[in-house]
Amino acid sequence: MGEKLNILTHMRVTVTLVVGADGSTSKDGNSAGVSSAVDRSAFLSRRRSADCILIGGNTARTEPYHRTPVPVVVISKSLINPLADNRLAHCWNLSPEDALDRASRTFGPNIHVEAGVGIIRQLIDAGRVDFLELSVTDVVGGEDLIDVDELLSHFSQIEEKLVSGTRFISAKKID
Question: Tell me, which fold does domain 28-173 have in CATH?
């Protein structure tokens, strides 16, 4: 048990999420519909610093994860790996919390979560997210809405900047 606690105390879990101005996390079936060029650039830069990326099965099936700079873990109940062509992909039938623990032990403590709203909510509610990197674009009319203000209420030390029409919000977990 002591080893598990040691691993968990050093883990750094960052959720990266892009939303439209109305809180939509996807449009026309994926996040590209709510993203912007500056968001995409920031997103790709951040993910290179991760030890591992954690996503859900739906994200794996709808987003471009066939090439990643670091290992990607797909949490899915399906026995079929939707990223079989990505040699860095792993498909685990685990809860998000258990997947975080295993990913930290397997790949390293710096885990980036790029999953859908359900997994993100579950991890935030369980107190397992340390940092939130949120990009808010001017897109409206998308799907899978999330309440940005409610999401941010779980974090402190919120910093915000505007770059080329995209709001970047960095938030740290409330201790």
Answer: Dihydrofolate Reductase, subunit A (3.40.430)
pLDDT tens profile 74-126: 999 887 888 989 999 999 999 999 999 999 999 999 999 999 889 999 999 99
Instruction: Please state whether 12 falls in left (phi above 0), alpha (psi between -120 and 50) or beta.
Output: beta
Domain range list for the chain: 28-173
pTM of this prediction? 0.88
Nearest to 15 by CA among 133, 175, 98: 133
DSSP string, 79-148: SS-TTTT-TTEEEE-S-HHHHHHHHHHHH-SEEEE---HHHHHHHHHTT---EEEEEE-S--S-EEE--H
Rg (CA), the chain: 15
- The beta strands (E) that lie in 21-62 are given as 24-26, 52-56
Burial 63-79 (b: 16+ CB within 10 A, else e): bebeebebbbbbbbeee
Given a contact cutoff of 8 angstroms between Cβ atoms, the answer to whether 97 and 123 are in contact is yes
- Helix or strand holding residue 73 (H, E): strand 72-75
Amino acid, res. 36: S
